[in-house]
Design a protein that fits this description.
By secondary structure, the chain is α/β, with parallel strands linked by helices. The chain has a domain of about 120 residues: Isoleucyl-tRNA Synthetase, Domain 1 (Orthogonal Bundle), CATH 1.10.730.10. It has 17 helices and 16 strands. Helix 6 packs across helix 10, helix 13 runs parallel beside helix 15 and helix 16 runs antiparallel to helix 17. The longest helix has about 30 residues. It is elongated, with a radius of gyration of 26 Å. The structure holds one RNA strand.
RNA sequence: GGCGGCGUAGCUCAGUUGGUAAGAGCACACGGCUCAUAAUCGUGGGGUCGCGGGUUCGAGUCCCGCCGCCGCUACCA
């Protein structure tokens, strides 16, 4: 299924620090991107930061910096966090970049040219922190913002409106024709619910500030931050600046988003695309929230865990494994340190790490440290189940269900442990039987390393090194059912080396 | 209020269009093994599938009502 795979995360608001919630989204995206590279797809993975708006302007002032200096500094926190977590994004888009300005202006100009914009007046109670207007009845206490409980301000300004209301029917029709566009289905229903409820035009420019992308046909206006932000998905691949490149990647895009921003991504954004005359994005992958002790890991809360600190503590691979194995892409999940340790000990230390260790020891004792080739599929008791689980894992990745893929992958590990137990090569003299079972076990490790590499990039490389393979475990195209993932790829004759435990057991706390 | 979703073993969850599947992993108990990170392998206990009705030869699986939790409700990531 070699194809083109353009994957995005939301761009993160630069005033906030990276937290486990944003790390979850970005790590999930990274794993999906790694899988698709592994499957031989031409892959482009982009994340970035959202850097406009009044809130940023004000915090910059509070810090005695120009907005430019402020966002240069704060966006680095994201660049550094993703670097520390060894994420493999191909680009990092910032909404304050020149290329983004040019794309936004071209894009909005196209919408304007197509007569979907008109001038109107908007006034109401405005919360600077939310960058949003509120209806009077939604305010709490003495004119306080319902989210921040801080005073709102009365704003009245003339701005440009986008005729979103004209797109409800077209969007419904489009989603009818593209039933796979939103995953999982429950989120698709939510989006359709929004559409069927009817849409209201929305104002998309501001005159009250100048920290934003200027409206090209009306000096003094800048685009409202949300509208400028969504365009990142096309500015990052050259819309209006490198159209050949844009057409290469669009619309074969997958937007990974949280369930809270469905309205913007599944309603506003495709409507904007239609208005500008380009295809709506092909697919949305909507994930749930990580909760801590049953509570939403809100970005405004103080009970946040620093994902880099956590990763430094437990290891990048381990954090990745926990987030991807324990939280299906869709529902909410409860993030706990205990859960992480439990998962780590059971799957990584006891199953995978220990399998590698015991195999290395027995190969050393019985085979002089030289790995044996696996038996042919027809003769190996392990092969049949391995092949089946490989297939399941492969398909699960394709279904955006990496947690299932990992579950299937670990079945191979269990089967390998069971076969070792059944034959007990450590009890018998060197010979064909010992060679066969050890070859099978090494072969299982080889295959598992490939399948797990999008989630455990470091450990997978280490496993391949220890079983004496020199090629890259994550070489593009290695996820190939009839190629590298087929039974029997381990050549035998390579040195198998023992090393320190891959994943030492952690004491529960 | 409206719309949508959820409620399955102690925990996290699977359960296609209703019919021998009430399951997996973890945890727990017992047994085996000792190559391995007190790891591993085997066996087992345990669930009225939120509650109450209904449809059906047969319902976690469909319908109605109720209870509990959650999301969205129209410019908060």
């Amino acid at each position: 299924m070699t194809g083109r795979y353009y994957l995005t995360t939301p761009i993160y608001y630069v005033n906030d620090a990276p937290h486990v919630g944003t790390a979850y989204t970005t790590i999930m995206a990274d794993a999906l991107a790694r899988w698709h590279r592994l499957a031989g797809d031409e892959t482009w993975f982009v994340t970035g930061t959202d850097e406009h708006g009044l809130k940023i302007l004000r915090t910059a002032e509070e810090n005695g910096l120009s907005p430019r200096e402020w966002v240069d500094r704060t966006s680095q926190r994201f660049v550094q966090a993703w670097g520390a977590l060894e994420l493999t994004n191909d680009d990092f888009i910032r909404t304050t970049e020149e290329r983004h300005y040019r794309s936004v202006q071209r894009f909005m100009q196209a919408i304007h040219d197509n007569d979907y914009l008109y001038k109107g007046t908007y006034e109401g109670w405005y919360c600077v922190s939310c960058e949003a207007y509120y209806l009077e009845e939604d305010l709490v206490g003495e004119n306080l913002c319902p989210v921040h409980e801080s005073p709102v301000e009365w704003f009245a300004e003339e701005n440009w409106f986008f005729a979103l209301s004209r797109f409800a029917d077209r969007l419904i029709a489009w989603y009818d024709e593209h039933p796979e566009a939103i995953h999982p289905e429950t989120r698709r229903n939510e989006a359709l619910g929004i559409l069927k409820g009817g849409l209201r035009d929305i104002s998309i420019t501001r005159t009250s500030i100048d920290w934003g992308v200027p409206v090209p046909w009306d000096p003094g206006h800048v685009f409202y931050v949300w509208y400028d932000a969504l365009v990142n998905y096309i500015s990052a691949v050259g819309y209006g600046t490198d159209n050949g490149r844009f057409e290469h990647w669009w619309p074969s895009v997958h937007h990974l988003i949280g369930k809270d921003i469905i309205r913007f991504h599944c309603v506003w954004w495709p409507a904007m695309c239609m208005a500008a005359g380009i295809d709506p994005p092909a697919r949305y992958l909507v994930h749930g929230f990580l909760m801590v002790g049953g509570r939403k890991m809100a970005k405004t809360a103080y009970n946040q865990v620093d994902p880099v600190e956590l990763a430094n503590d437990v290891g990048n691979d381990v954090l990745r494994y926990y987030l991807i194995r324990d939280f299906p892409l869709g529902p909410d999940g409860d993030f706990t340190y205990e859960g992480l340790v439990e998962r780590y000990n059971a799957d990584l230390a006891n199953n995978l790490g220990n399998l590698l260790q015991r195999v290395a020891t027995v190969v050393e004792q019985k085979c002089g440290g030289i790995g044996r080739a696996p038996r042919p599929a027809a003769e190996s008791p392990l092969a049949a189940s391995a092949v089946e689980h490989v297939k399941t894992a492969y398909e699960a990745w394709g279904r955006f269900s990496p947690h299932e893929a990992l579950e299937a992958t670990w079945r191979i590990i269990r089967a390998a442990n069971a076969e070792l137990e059944a034959v007990a090569p450590w009890k018998i003299d060197p010979g064909p039987e010992v060679d066969g079972v050890l070859g099978d076990a090494i072969e299982a490790l080889r295959i598992v390393a490939i399948l797990a590499s999008p989630v455990l990039p470091r450990a997978s490389r280490e496993i391949w090194a220890r079983i004496g393979l020199s090629r890259e475990v994550d070489a593009p195209g290695n996820a190939d059912l009839s190629g590298s993932l087929a039974w029997g790829g381990y050549p035998g004759g390579a040195p198998v080396t023992k090393g320190p435990p891959l994943f030492p057991r952690r004491a529960a706390e």
